[in-house]
Amino acid sequence: MTPRARRAVVWSLLAAAAAGLVVTGRGEVVVAAALGGLVLATGLAVFRGYSRTRGPVGPPSDVEDTGTLLVFACETCGEQLILLRKGTDAPPRHCADPMVLRRVPTPGPGGS
Q1: What's the pLDDT band for 54 if we cut at 50, 70, 90?
Q2: What pTM does this model have?
Q3: 40 burial class (0-12, 13-18, 19+ CB within 10 angstroms)?
Q4: I need a labelling partner for 17 at 20 to 30 A (CA). Which of 45, 56, 82, 97 fits?
């Protein structure tokens, strides 16, 4: 039996069982099973999407910007992130928004 034919047999058996439950007055079991299948399918789709994350395409590189610090800042809450190694050119996200890149001059050797 081919997989397609086997799938058709399984679906027809499930439909017959659902019809039998509805006829005998147990329709709530059919509704509960359908809702459970919907929740399961939604969860599997969400987790399948998490497994396909896109990360940096190349190796991380050191930031070589002398005299300044590269600081990413969240304009919503004020969170700041100092960039030491860069893995991608895309800015990080915080509070569901991309962070803004700011170049902050480093203090001189005198510590002023």
Answers
A1: low
A2: 0.43
A3: exposed
A4: 45
Using DSSP, state whether 83 is helix, strand or coil: strand
Domain ranges within the chain, ordered by starting residue = 3-50, 61-105
What token pair was written down for 1?
A: 């039996």
Query: Encoding tokens for residue 50?
Result: 């998490």
In whole angstroms, what is the distance from residue 45 CA to residue 33 CA? 18
Lowest mean pLDDT among 34-38, 84-88, 102-106: 84-88
Q: How far is CA 85 from CA 61, 65, 92, 108, in A?
A: 6, 11, 13, 22
The residue among 16 and 86 whose pLDDT is bigger is 16
Q: Which residue has the tokens 């047999």?
A: 9
Q: Distance between CA 64 and CA 24 in Å, rounded?
A: 74
